[in-house]
Amino acid sequence: MDVLNRPRRSSAPSLNPPRSTSRQVSGTGAAFAPALLLVPIAAGVATSLATEGIDGVFWCYPAVVLSYFVLPTGAAAACSVAQLALAAAIVDRAVGADPAIRLALSLGVVIAVVTVMLNMRGSVQRRLAEEAITDPLTGAFNRRHMDACLRTAIERRDRTAEPASLLVFDVDHFKAINDAVGHLGGDDVLKAIVALVAGRARKLDVLFRIGGEEFALLLAGARYAHALAVAEDLRAVVERAGLPGAGAVSISVGVSEVRRGQSASDWIEEADAALYRAKRWGRNRVAGSAPGTAGLMRARRGEKRIGAFEPI
User: Fold this and answer.
1) According to CATH, where is 3.30.70.270 located in the chain?
2) Which of 42-56, 187-201, 279-293 has the lowest average pLDDT?
3) Which of 200, 272, 288, 307 is the most buried (most CB within 10 A)?
């Protein structure tokens, strides 16, 4: 039985961060306050159209542009279309259909151009935000994003007692791999391992590249025992993979479950210490620091069943 107890995903790591580090303000309440600014503006535009006719139409253009900066895009578009319809109706009644059609077309062009520009800006901002937290080589998240995610997991643990575990792993004898296949081949090995791990992870798990050949996997909601089983599964998957050009490749894994009141740096240090203990055991192993104890656990090599860990 699959120790991860979950369906496998695509082998390619996602490049689209599922969780943004920026605070997202949503809901009608957030849009309500700036929308109040449009009330006197809309009233002024309507009054100008009603009293000045065609001359009052020009106030529609700045009002349309302003609406996109104080309202969500959908609400701004609806407000702009309403202004367009109102202005066209007043102009049609005052001076005829032809000026009304020209007004509608010109306002429509303004609405379209502003919408396209804001969408382009939003796309660039999202891409820059992703690049700021993503490792460009492997597609895993970077250390900056890891620090933020660990702080969030710790806060959730302290507030709601929700567990979380951290797996820190690196590629065994990576320098020898680089010497054998070259740096580009070594890069391919790292990308392949990230793809293997991402293919076994759940959507709520987050994979990071800490630096060089060292990575971390944050398991949300995972207790220590389950994290050990996941780590052993990942170790076995990589060992069996036989990566192209590099042959047999293995990883060593350190596991730690966050404790109440523990800092992010202490949590990483604990998992890192377990990783180096696994390396001292001979590599291609899993080691874990049990929560609340100083005891470390070892996976017996060649043992396939869940729970194949013994204290040392």
Assistant:
1) 143-311
2) 42-56
3) 288
Longest Cα–Cα distance in the chain: 92
pTM of the model: 0.66
Nearest to 201 by CA among 17, 4, 18, 3: 4
Q: Which pLDDT belongs to residue 62?
A: 82
Average pLDDT over the chain reads 79
Residue pointed to by tokens 């005829």: 96
- Is a pLDDT exceeding 50 seen at residue 11? no
Task: Report, at the CATH architecture level, how domain 143-311 is classified.
Answer: 2-Layer Sandwich (3.30)
Alpha-carbon span 212 to 209, nearest angstrom: 8
Place of tokens 């043992």: 303
